[in-house]
């Protein structure tokens, strides 16, 4: 991103010119093409609610669009997008909507002990021992493993995304891997 | 196994969870709506005039250093010969398809997958050639290539494919393959079948397979190839707070050259360069990652004095570091002299953020651009740096 981009954005905000808007749209669409699927799938993996994941990913890209002028040439778009996404996931877990869903799931499970077709599909699709082990980890270990191995963020980028020291990320990553490996050895099944 | 784990995680998410075109358009429409709603409303005539003057003034003031910067950038670009530093832009592509792009020195091509096809972009003529038009998805992470061979895996199709580029012949090898690396006419990969997990070598000219190493005995064992050598290590000993050991083999003879140690708890990105094995190293609680190497000729461990970095790539004495810059990072070049990294100005004028430094076996550094030029890469010839 060239420094002149800042000037385009400034004039766009004041004047609403066609060229500047086109450039802004192009940057958004490029970011969506580059990160859209990865972000949506990551968010889904964390919160397991497709509709909510779509809402969150929309919010992530709109915030990027509205804050484009804050980006300097070497700012990390990727880190910014993931940071908003993870924060939105954390907010979702704290929300009443999520807790209400948890409670209704609990009652639903007690009342009807029968897997829905969707649940069966989900079960089939997660029929991978490594993934099962990772899914069993506490959120703080699970999210660093997903961010590192799936989203391919470096430990520094994860530190920036989660707003915590790099060494905390390293420790969580190492512990998470170790915990998954212990489960793996207990399961005695790799291939 | 990193790629294997990434794939397993990906497969745990239903395929239908992707952003559809109509959702992308909905995001754009909502973004427009919010931007317009957030725009300042019309005020009496004098205020816009004052604002406009202020904006022009501020823009001019802010623009001056950038204009100077642009002029400086142009000057540096002119003073850097094109055979040392080249920017390659591939219109229609993006960071997602180019992050795994492979530069082939001999043919000056960039080879990448756009998801369905494997494409060669000729950096001399700026033309694209479709090498493989797949029946199924092809991930860029599951493509390796050089001037003689393309090897790739197609989603949901058994085995993997080998294209002999000299005669156009395609062969299907019925083996489950992970973590491919290519070295000349040899393919090194992890083969998984019937509960066996073996590090395997395939001679691409004869298709003869050789089992090198039982990976189940050392779960998640990692490997790196380079300079005709194979390096094996086990990153999961990193919890053991002593050291990480690794073994080096000759790729031609399969004979072990020796076993060595890095005196650190954790290592990553082992890289063979000449007669040295480099690694990023850290102990729990370290603020900085250390760059170090073991010299195979004397078996001794040495550290390289560097600025703080988050990732590295090395070719002989040329070092590319992703170094922190404000809240982000970008790639800078260095020359190693007397085990100290000395900064080179080659990339300093580039305003874009550079990511994922990697060297070709012949010494070309390739970095992707993240930012407005998502579809661009820079190629630097490390052999021509002073």
Mean pLDDT across residues of chain A: 68
Percent range of helical residues of chain B: 10-25%
**Total number of β-strand segments of chain A?**
0
Structural class of chain B: alpha+beta
CATH architecture of the largest domain in chain A: Orthogonal Bundle
Kindly state the mean pLDDT of chain B as a whole number? 82
Largest sheet of chain B: 4 strands, antiparallel
Query: What is the radius of gyration of chain A computed over CA atoms, rounded to a whole number of angstroms?
Result: 20 Å
Taking pLDDT < 50 over at least 5 consecutive residues as the criterion, the unreliable ranges of chain B are: 39-53, 59-78
Which class of the largest domain in chain A in CATH terms? Mainly Alpha
Protein name (chain B): DUF5050 domain-containing protein
Write up what this structure looks like.
The complex is a heterodimer of chains A (191) and B (386). Chain A is an all-alpha fold and 191 residues long. Chain A has two domains: 1-113, Orthogonal Bundle (Rna Polymerase Sigma Factor, Chain: A); 115-191, Arc Repressor Mutant, subunit A (Orthogonal Bundle). Chain A has ten helices and no strands. In chain A, helix 4 packs across helix 9. The radius of gyration of chain A is 20 Å and the shape is globular. Residues 1-19, 104-127 and 182-191 of chain A have low confidence and may be disordered. Residues 39-53 and 59-78 of chain B have low confidence and may be disordered. By secondary structure, chain B is an alpha+beta fold. Chain B has a domain at 45-79. Chain B has helices spanning 2-11, 21-38, 46-79, 95-98; strands at 85-89, 102-104, 109-113, 117-122, 127-133, 143-145, 149-152, 160-164, 169-173, 177-183, 186-193, 196-203, 208-214, 222-226, 229-233, 244-250, 256-262, 266-273, 276-282, 290-295, 300-304, 311-315, 318-325, 328-337, 340-344, 353-359, 364-370, 376-381. Chain B is globular, with a radius of gyration of 24 Å. In chain B, the strands form seven sheets. Chain B has a four-stranded antiparallel sheet, with no helix packed on it. In chain B, strands 2-3-4-5 form a four-stranded antiparallel sheet, with no helix packed on it. Chain B is 17% helix and 44% strand. Chain B starts with a helix and ends in a 5-residue tail after the last strand. Classes of the chains: A mainly alpha (191), B alpha+beta (386). At the A-B interface, helix 1, helix 2, helix 3, helix 4 and helix 6 of A face helix 1, helix 2, helix 3, strand 23 and strand 24 of B. Chain B: This is DUF5050 domain-containing protein. Chain B: It comes from Sporosarcina highlanderae.
């Amino acid at each position: 991103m060239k420094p002149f981009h800042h000037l385009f954005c400034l004039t766009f905000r004041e004047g609403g010119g066609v060229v500047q808007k086109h450039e802004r749209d192009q940057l958004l669409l490029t970011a969506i093409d580059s990160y859209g699927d990865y972000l949506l799938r990551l968010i889904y993996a964390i919160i397991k609610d497709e509709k909510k994941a779509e809402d969150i990913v929309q919010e992530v890209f709109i915030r990027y669009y509205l804050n484009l002028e804050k980006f300097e040439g070497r700012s990390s778009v990727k880190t910014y997008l993931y940071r908003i996404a993870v924060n939105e996931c954390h907010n979702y877990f704290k929300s009443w909507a999520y807790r209400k869903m948890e409670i209704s799931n609990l009652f639903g499970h007690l009342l009807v002990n029968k897997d829905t077709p969707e649940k069966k599909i989900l079960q089939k699709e997660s029929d991978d021992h490594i993934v099962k082990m990772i899914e069993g980890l506490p959120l703080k270990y699970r999210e660093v493993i997903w961010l590192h191995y799936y989203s391919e963020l470096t430990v520094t980028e994860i530190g920036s995304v989660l707003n915590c020291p790099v060494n905390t990320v390293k420790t969580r990553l190492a512990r998470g891997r170790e915990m998954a490996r212990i489960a793996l050895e207990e399961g005695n099944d790799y291939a | 196994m990193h790629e294997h784990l990434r794939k397993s995680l990906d497969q745990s998410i239903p395929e239908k969870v992707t952003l559809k075109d109509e959702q992308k358009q909905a995001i754009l429409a909502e973004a427009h709506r919010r931007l317009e709603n957030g725009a300042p409303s019309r005020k009496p005539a004098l205020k816009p005039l004052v604002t406009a003057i202020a904006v022009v003034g501020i823009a001019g003031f802010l623009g001056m250093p950038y204009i100077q910067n642009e002029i400086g950038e142009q000057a540096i670009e002119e003073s850097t010969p094109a055979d040392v530093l080249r920017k390659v832009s591939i219109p229609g592509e993006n960071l997602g398809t180019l992050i795994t792009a492979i530069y082939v020195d001999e043919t000056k091509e960039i080879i990448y997958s756009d998801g369905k096809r494997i494409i060669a972009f000729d950096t001399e003529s700026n033309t694209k050639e479709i090498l493989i038009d797949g029946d199924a998805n092809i991930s860029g992470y599951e493509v390796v290539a050089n001037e003689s061979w393309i090897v790739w895996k197609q989603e949901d199709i058994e085995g993997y494919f080998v294209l002999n580029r000299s005669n156009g012949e395609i062969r299907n090898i019925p083996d489950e393959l992970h973590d491919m690396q290519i070295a000349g006419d040899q393919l090194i990969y992890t083969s998984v079948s019937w509960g066996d997990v073996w590090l395997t070598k395939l001679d691409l000219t004869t298709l003869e397979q050789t089992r090198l190493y039982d990976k189940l005995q050392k779960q998640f064992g990692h490997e790196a190839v380079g300079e005709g050598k194979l390096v094996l290590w086990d990153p999961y000993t990193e919890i053991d707070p002593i050291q990480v050991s690794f073994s080096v083999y000759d790729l031609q003879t399969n004979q072990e050259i020796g076993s060595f140690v890095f005196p650190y708890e954790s290592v990553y990105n082992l890289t063979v360069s000449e007669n040295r094995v480099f690694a990023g190293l850290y102990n729990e609680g370290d603020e900085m990652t250390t760059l170090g190497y073991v010299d195979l000729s004397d078996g001794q461990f040495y550290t390289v004095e560097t600025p703080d970095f988050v990732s590295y790539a090395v070719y002989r004495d040329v070092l590319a570091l992703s170094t922190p810059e404000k809240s982000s990072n970008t790639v800078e070049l260095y020359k190693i002299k007397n085990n100290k990294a000395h900064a080179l100005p080659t990339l300093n004028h580039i305003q874009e953020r550079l990511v994922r430094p990697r060297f070709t076996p012949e010494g070309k550094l390739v970095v992707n651009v993240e930012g407005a030029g998502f579809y661009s890469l820079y190629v630097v010839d490390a052999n021509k740096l002073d």
